[in-house]
Write a structure and sequence with these properties.
Layout (H helix, E strand, L loop, with lengths): L1 H11 L5 E7 L6 E7 L9 E3 L17 E7 L5 E2 L1 E4 L3 E4 L8 E7 H7 L8 E3 L2 E5 H4 L2 E2 L7 E6 L6 E3 L11 E6 L2 H5 L2 E4 L4 E5 L5 E7 L5 H19 L7 E8 L11 E3 L3 E7 L10 H16 L26 H17 L4 H22 L2 H4 L3 H11 L4 H25 L6 H15 L7 H10 L4 H8 L7
Helix pairs in contact: 5-6, 5-7, 6-7, 7-8, 7-11, 8-11, 10-11, 12-13
This protein binds zinc ion.
């Protein structure tokens, strides 16, 4: 009996932390230094990997290209050999080496020059630093699930925010945070500098609006819309899936005509929005501009539930070196966007809500499906999802059609559930149930499981609707 107790205690000890220290100095503008300290005796852990694939980025960026001066040492401080390997990998030491510390630098200035999608790159501008975790932080193969500690150091007068532990007032110069594992670390962001402005939103759990603007915009108006979108989205899903949330918006002077602005990205506990400097919302913006921004916020916030915490295969665990091939983008994008439409509509008077929903379904989904090229229409939804897995925004015909077909599927399922339950249930209940199913099961769902999970709480058989929408558009009649 005693032996059994001792054993269970030993098993409950959490694995030792991997400790990251990230430093940015005024004197070395554009360059970030990273140090990784491994838990003692991480024997066999000899491969450093810098991510290329971006969670929900549906593509890759060559972040390893901006890494230099990689060094490694053992616990007695002796230097280990470092060899650049195939892919975004470095081989550290000899087979019997025990790696204790890894250090390297990342050239943020060059990254921003060479990665043309503003939503995929870190930025270093005068008085401002903005880092996407996965673009600068690597991991040691085999330690991806270890808990992580992060220590940050920036110029001592700079306000600093990590989305792992956002709070006001912002700490100056230094901060620390922890993350459950490498995914949570890599999917977080760090922003710092005197040009950063942060406001608290009146939400529970706490949420923050962080802005860096090189153009004109109205932070009060933006944070008000973010707050409204956040309140509506939490209300739709019934409860928050996160302990805190950060909305980061940047308005950037374009680096060149080839650089692309306008895409947003969602993360576990944050969403990032990147616009060119003239894209900001101001007091003079029209009602439809405001409505567009409100919807865009709600859309990306909804991803904190779908698919960040309720997902099909490939979203998690994540393959960092090559973008995963995904079967369920139509769900992740279509159902989350439909949820965002409903979340906003729920806050409107009934007739306005109906008009809002119809208008968004038409503009965001039906038009895209109607105008999709024939060869894309002929793809089954899973086939289209696989194609969009690496080309979603690169060739946005794939991304647009896959989310539109998913969004229309969600709308039809919602109509069916409301009809058959005489309005006592709706898709919202099925999605809430799926989120708690995912939390309980701790795994990806299979597509075939979705109708069963939905029926558990609504009693409505939606399988025929799933089957119909999953088929190629051309051959269904
Ligand atoms: Zn989306």
């Amino acid at each position: 009996m005693l032996a059994a107790i001792v054993l269970s205690l030993a098993q409950s000890v959490t694995p030792a932390e991997v400790s990251y220290a990230l430093t940015y100095r005024d004197s070395r503008a554009g360059l970030v230094s990273v140090r990784i300290d491994l838990p003692p005796a991480s024997r066999g852990s000899r491969i450093l990997v810098i991510p290329r694939a971006i969670p929900m980025g549906y593509g890759e960026q060559p972040f390893d290209r901006f890494v230099s001066s990689v060094s490694a040492s053992s616990s007695d401080g002796s230097r280990l050999a470092v060899e650049s390997a195939e892919g975004p990998r470095w081989l550290l030491g000899a087979p019997d080496s025990i790696v204790a510390r890894i250090e390297y630098e990342v050239d943020i200035a060059r990254m921003e020059q060479e990665v043309l999608a503003a939503s995929d790159t870190s930025k270093a501008r005068p008085g401002y630093l903005s880092l996407l975790g996965y673009s600068v932080l690597g991991y040691v193969e085999g330690l991806e699930e270890s808990p992580v500690r992060l220590d940050l150091e920036v110029p001592e007068t700079w306000p600093l925010l990590t989305t792992l532990a956002p709070r006001l007032p912002l700490p100056l110069g230094r901060d620390s945070a922890s993350a459950e594992n490498f995914y949570a670390l890599a999917d977080s962001q760090i922003v710092a500098g005197p040009e950063l402005e942060v406001r608290a939103l009146a939400t529970r759990p706490p949420a923050y609006f962080a802005l860096y603007a090189e153009g004109e915009t109205d932070i009060s108006l933006l944070s008000e819309l973010a707050e409204q979108a956040m309140l509506r989205t939490i209300e739709y899903f019934g409860e928050a899936s996160f302990r805190h949330y950060t909305v980061l918006q940047e308005l950037l002077e374009p680096l060149s005509e080839r650089h692309r602005y306008g895409f947003s990205m969602e993360h576990l506990d944050s969403a990032t929005f990147y616009l060119a400097r003239d894209g900001g919302l101001t007091g003079a913006s029209s009602a439809s501009d405001r409505a567009r921004v409100l919807y865009n916020f709600a859309h990306h916030f909804a991803h904190a539930w779908i698919p960040k915490r309720s997902y099909g295969k490939g979203y998690y665990p994540f393959t960092w070196e090559l973008a995963p091939v995904l079967d369920t983008i139509w769900f992740s994008e279509g159902f989350a966007q439909y949820a965002a439409i409903e979340a906003i509509a729920d806050g409107l008077p009934e007739d306005e809500a109906r008009a809002y929903r119809q208008n968004l379904l038409e503009r965001r989904f039906r038009q895209n499906v109607a105008t999709a090229p024939a060869f894309i229409r002929r793809m089954s939804l899973v086939e289209l999802s696989r194609v969009a897995s690496t080309r979603y925004s690169e060739d946005f015909r794939t991304g647009r059609t896959v989310f539109s077909r998913g969004g229309l599927m969600a709308a039809e399922i919602d109509d069916r559930i409301r009809q058959e339950t005489r309005g006592t249930h709706r898709l919202r209940d099925a999605l809430r149930h799926l989120v708690s199913w995912s939390r309980k099961n701790g795994r990806a769902f299979e597509i075939e499981e979705l109708p069963t999970i939905f029926a558990e709480v609504t009693g409505v058989d939606t399988r025929p609707i799933f089957d119909w929408w999953l088929k190629p558009l051309e051959v269904r009649e």
